[in-house]
Specification:
eight-stranded mixed sheet; 16 strands; 2,3-Dihydroxybiphenyl 1,2-Dioxygenase, domain 1; Glyas_Bleomycin-R_OHBP_Dase; VOC_core; globular; 5 helices; Glyas_Fos-R_dOase_dom; Glyoxalase family protein; single chain
Length: 321
Amino acid sequence: MSIKTSGLHHVTAIGGDPQRNADFYLRTLGLRLVKTTVNFDDPGTYHLYYGDQSGKPGSLMTFFPWKDAPRGRHGTGQATTTSFSVPEASIGWWKQHLAASGVEAGQIRNADEEDVLTFRDPDGLELALVAHPQGDPRDPWDTKLVPAEHAIRGLHSVTLSVSKEDATAGMLTDGLGLSFANQDSNRLRFAAGEGGPGALVDVLVTPEAPRGLVAAGTVHHVAWRAPDEQTQVEWREELADKGVHVTSILDRQYFRSIYFREPGGTLLEVATDEPGFAIDEPLLELGRALKLPPWLEPNRAEIEAMLPKLNLPSENNPERA
């Protein structure tokens, strides 16, 4: 692969009640809602983007929340754990904070010289907080409930569950330009560039596990970074030349996207770093208003009538956080 990703761009999951989703990710995890928009393919539901102050690529967790969505099934053919990066000395603080918030977490364990704390969101999505011993220089979002000294720095990694590893490993190396990092039993780690938080994917080989079902509480797709549109065009051509069934380039307003599945079944995306979330509202006001792309704007009244009301906690407003 001549083109290589620099790391994760975002992870998109299916959620349940949108208000419960926003309360959890804004208040319990201390992220910022950087864009309130809709699913462009199904504008009757929100698309909520959480991240750091400006929603930089690599900080983003996004959701399609359907209030009455059925629960999914975790298994092979999907991303089964989304991990966030936190400061090395903050894992103990997070365990106490989650307990105080009514979130049951596992025991802190050490893997690959990193401390890991695993838990689930209100819809059953498996999440983890990971403290890397070399730290993470990315700037966090700062709130009263989750102060900057402990706050999430961005995505750390994702775990893909597969029944067989060879074809998936081939896609990660030949399709995304990742390199094999290490193996621990049935878990293989791959890294973009020099690796580290935000540039890692683990492949968990579980041939006995059931096939996953994507619905509430599961990941819909995992997106990787492309620096610009020209690189994405060339990337798409390379994938197509390799026989990969890849979509046309789609306008997601805040980035451009292509989608394809890795052989194990997980839907992957390559998303551009540009143009970002400040193209249609000021940085200080990100996420407060419902933003629609130009082709949906004529239907704003109808769309707003379909969407449930969403009340954002004060943590999302910089002057009151």
